[in-house]
Amino acid sequence: MKILLLEDEFDFAQSVSEYLTALGYEVDIASDGIVACDLIANNFYHLFMLDIKVPNVNGFEVIKYIKSLNIQTPIMITTSLTDIDDMAIGYELGCNEYLKKPFELAELKFRVTELMRKYYNVDDKNTIVLHQGFSYNVIKKTLFKGASVVDLSAKETELVGYLSEHANRYVSITELRDVVWDGKEIEEADIRMHVLKIRNKTTKDFISSKRRVGYKIDAKNI
Fold this sequence. Notes:
Strand order of the largest sheet: 2-1-3-4-5
Largest sheet: 5 strands, parallel
Number of strands: 11
Order of helices and strands: EHEHEHEHEHEEEEHHHEE
Oligomer: single chain
CATH superfamily of the largest domain: Response regulator
Helix content: 40-55%
CATH architecture of the largest domain: 3-Layer(aba) Sandwich
Low-confidence stretches: none
Strand content: 15-25%
């Protein structure tokens, strides 16, 4: 799962990034708000970790930009600002968590884990708990039925992984082409064939579909 870290203190950003990477997350670092906005416009992230006092465009303005794009990704503010008015601004703009600097890395792990559990049904073993007894491990990139591995091809695994990480919402054909097939002009019938093969290896309604909307995998509440 992918995190954007907006932090202008180089050593601190590297330390946090290395820690999160060791936990299994993919991390992009932005040292100022303009770079962060460019990354947000061109990438999908599962979590935004934003400092407020950064060059060019501050973290509050970055939150406004996120909201202007109607992005629902959770936002964690990490800042040394302790004034209650600053905290109020952050929450009013739509942040989901507020972590004051300095903080222990163990506390960061707890906060990140909790947000991932809440928004993506990911437990502390980096597993997305799906419906019908299935689960998807985002680190191992493996689908399980109970304790048994479901044998999927590489592309089937990518498709299941993307739908699992965006569980409980329909993902459009266009989005699947752009992300799972790297923008290739694959026919919709080919995508349907991959879905059919996955259903044959799981259940007929493991992946649900809605005409002209897309495909969805449901997650179970943890």
